[in-house]
Structure formats: structure tokens, C-alpha cells
């Protein structure tokens, strides 16, 4: 079978397509014939040898923490009736998904309802789990102002919809007119271009000078710090990423003085555990037409380097997938 392998840390060019033996399911496992493999921004950071939190993978490695496809075979102790089912699943160790075939634990499988395209379900596998968890942790109430950074991305687009569905007033922040158009289409009441100076003034204007009650910070760095500055007194500042290359630095004394609760990056550790229930909820919401996965582009497996480059260039709205 074909896989994408990283043999050294570096730019997208280090992603190589290679041929390896087909895997075999062990006890409690299945083999999935992959149709789509999801890519997260953090995978591009790990590929470069940088990590905002999780340990760097040992070289060489096959990237990709989640896939969607059909169950091809099952190992000992697994219901043979699973063969042929459409599923999405994380891969053990959150790696190995950029391949034609993957081994997964049967307990990690989430079946995909007939009403939902497999590509959309794959896009919801990790981001759906994370978005549902972040949303729950933030405890959003109707009428609150919610600021979502990177609101046109795979995760941000889901947070916009979840907050809107909870009755919040959503401010979607993204870079460029095309992305803001996507965000507005998802239900954001206000959109702001954070690539332009003075974007935080627009947030304050929209909220009557008070600021956002909840901020979802997936960018970090200077932009995340600017977003913290427009978090309302008594608000919540939820950190879930560092696509800028560094997490947002918040002085605990300053946060306490303003009554801002900082929900730190450590929340992701809990969300990366047993996420089946949250993923199932996201998929059920999508199958029912209440949540939409935004799939920006798909690339063939052998063009994984182009997919990584597009993500790093912020050239794709929503989720980027590899089609196998």
C-alpha cells in the first residue's frame, strides 16, 4: 500500500509517498480502507519539528491522526458485521492516517449515517470532537458576545455555528474578504478582518465598548494577545491553538484583576482522550442539517506536500483533506 512518510523535519517537501506492506488487524482491531484522511494545522507544525504541546513524533513517521473509509477486515474478538461499514476513526498514537490502509481499534470507530457524506464526516472527526468540547467548557449563554479567531477554518467554522446555535451573538475574525464571506454565511453577526490594523476597535464597537464575553483563541501570539485585550470583564478566554507559532501569554494577575477566566491549552489533553461521544454528537448534528462541515479542498494522497503548503499559506477555507 502507499503511505506518506516524513523522514526528516522540514518544509512540505519532506513528505514522501512510499510503498509499504499492507497492515493486518490484531485482536480488537480493524483494517480500514481509507477514502479520506484529515489534516490538522498542528500536523504542519510537527512536520517542521515544532510543537505547541504534544511530543514530536519519532522519525521516520506517517502523519495523520484520523481517517474516514470502509472497514476492510477485522481481528480477533471484533464483530465481523463491521466489514463494509462506513466509519471515521482516530488512529492509535494519532499517526499513520496518511495511507491507503490503516489499523484502528474497533472501540474507536464511529459509524457514519447514510445522510452524511464521508468527506464531511472525516472533516468532523477531530475538529468536531474539539469544537463540541471547547463549546461545553466555555459555557456560552444566550445573548453573549462570542469572538471566534480563525473563524473560517475547520475548527473555527464549527465554533461559529455552535455558538450561534446556542443563541450567542458571534463575531467571526479571519483574514481577507473571501474568508469573511464564508464566516458570514455560517451565521456570524459581525465579521472582522484581523489582518488589518484596528480590528479590535471593531470588536469593541460591535459590543458597545464592553468586549467579547467569550473568546476562542486558536491563533496565539500577538493576535491572541490583542483578542485578550478585548475580552469583557468577567468573560472567558479559551485557548486551543497556536497557529502563529506561540501561545497567547496572559498574566494571571491581570486576568484576575479583570475577572477573566482563562481556559488554557491544557483542556486539549482531556479532549484528545475518549472523544467518541463528542464526535458522534457533531456527526449527528451534521446529519440532521444543524451543523455544516466546511471542506475547503481535497488533494490526492500523493500531493500531500501541496496540501500542507496550502494550509500553511492560509490559502484554504475550512478543512483540508487527502483523498485516497
- SSE pattern, N- to C-terminal: EEEHEEEEHEHEHEHEHEHEHHEHE
Mean pLDDT metric: 94
**If helices are DSSP runs of H or I spanning 4 or more residues, what is the number of helices?**
10
* Strand coverage percent: 25-35%
> For this structure, what is the CATH class of the largest domain?
Alpha Beta
CATH superfamily of the largest domain: NAD(P)-binding Rossmann-like Domain
Query: What's the overall geometry?
Result: globular
Distance between the termini: 11 Å
Task: Report Rg.
Answer: 20 Å
The total count of strands amounts to 15
Number of domains: 2
The CATH architecture of the largest domain would be 3-Layer(aba) Sandwich
Unreliable spans are: none
Helical content class: 25-40%
CATH topology call of the largest domain:
Rossmann fold
Structural class: alpha/beta
> Biggest β-sheet: count, sense, barrel?
7 strands, mixed
